[in-house]
Amino acid sequence: MRFTVIWSKQALHELGELWLNTPESERQALTDRVNWVDRDLQENAHQKGALIPGLAPLRVRTPPEFYEPPTVCLLFEVSEADRKVQVIQLRTVPTLP
C-alpha cells in the first residue's frame, strides 16, 4: 500500500536546525538518512516502525544499522484510511561509547 508522507512544520523546523548544526562534512550523510526514512514510509507505512507505549498510535522509525551513527529518529502517525503518514518530530539518536 502506497502512502503520502507529510512533514509537520515542527518536524521541518527540527530538520532545518539539525542540518544547520551538522558539520558540513556530515550533511550529506544526514540527508541520506532522512531521505531513506522518508522513502521507506511511502510503502506500507502501517507495518513499519515501533508503536510507542502509552502514545499509540504514534510510531518511531530509524534508518537501518548500516548507516553510521549518529542517526535520526522520526516520530510519525499513520492514517490508513487516507494513506497518509504525518511526520511529527525528528530527533538525533545519540552515539553510545
Main attributes of the structure:
2 helices, alpha+beta, 97 residues, 29% strand, globular, five-stranded mixed sheet, 5 strands
List the helices and strands and how they pair.
Layout: E1 4-7, H1 9-21, H2 27-40, E2 50-51, E3 59-61, E4 71-79, E5 84-93
Parallel strand pairs: 1-5
Antiparallel strand pairs: 2-3, 3-4, 4-5
Can you give me a brief rundown of this structure?
With 97 residues, the protein is α+β, with helices and mostly antiparallel strands.
Structure description:
There is one protein chain. This protein is of the alpha+beta class. The chain is built from two helices and five strands. Strand 4 and strand 5 (84-93) form a beta hairpin. The radius of gyration is 13 Å and the shape is globular. The termini are far apart.
H/E element order: EHHEEEE
Shape label:
globular
User: How does the helix and strand content classify structurally?
Assistant: alpha+beta
Strand content: 25-35%
- Mean pLDDT metric: 87
| Main β-sheet description | 5 strands, mixed
The number of E-state strands comes to 5
Radius of gyration computed on alpha carbons: 13 Å
Poorly predicted regions: none
**Helical content, roughly?**
25-40%
In whole angstroms, how far apart are the ends? 39 Å
Number of helices: 2
Q: For the largest beta sheet, what order do the strands appear in spatially?
A: 1-5-4-3-2
